[in-house]
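Try this one yourself first.
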């Protein structure tokens, strides 16, 4: 058992492991720990010219790159223990994972009414229901079953 790694030293290295990745355009930089959990996220001013979909895609792709690096380094640390088992299978999966491309759709055109408003105020189209005359007793309210309108 002399060739087995020191357990405490291995745990300390795994706890200290951090992998950092930066997007190709430098807009996104992030770090993950040995489990691939996000520990740091930084966005540069370059994201101000990007759409929300483009920002999300850059973050996701950078996150996957950092997780791959974390999985590779974790696998290297655990290699002396053997290459079988659930943990090593998960690490291999993380290294090979490829996110699906996110299609960037053009902005939706919202048809406008004649008056230029997106939504028409229809509150005056139908008469409002009169408020209940006086308080409604609990027995009456609960006796009619579930209601989806306000009780008051």
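Now uncover the answer:
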């Amino acid at each position: 058992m002399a060739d087995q790694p020191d357990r405490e030293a291995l745990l300390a290295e795994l706890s200290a492991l951090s992998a950092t990745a930066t997007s190709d355009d430098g807009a996104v930089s992030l770090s993950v720990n040995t489990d691939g959990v996000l520990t740091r996220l930084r966005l540069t001013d370059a994201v101000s010219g990007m759409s929300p979909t483009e920002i999300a895609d850059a973050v996701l792709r950078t996150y996957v790159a950092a997780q791959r690096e974390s999985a590779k380094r974790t696998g290297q640390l655990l290699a002396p223990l053997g290459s079988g088992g659930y943990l090593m299978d998960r690490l291999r999966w993380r290294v090979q994972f490829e996110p699906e491309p996110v299609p960037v759709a053009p902005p939706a055109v919202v048809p406008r009414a004649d008056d230029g408003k997106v939504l028409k105020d229809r509150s005056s189209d139908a008469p409002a229901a009169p408020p209940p005359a006086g308080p409604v007793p609990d027995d009456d309210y609960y006796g009619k079953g579930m209601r989806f309108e306000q009780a008051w």
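Discussion: Helices lie at 7-16, 52-78, 86-96, 138-143. The first strand starts at residue 18 and ends at 22.
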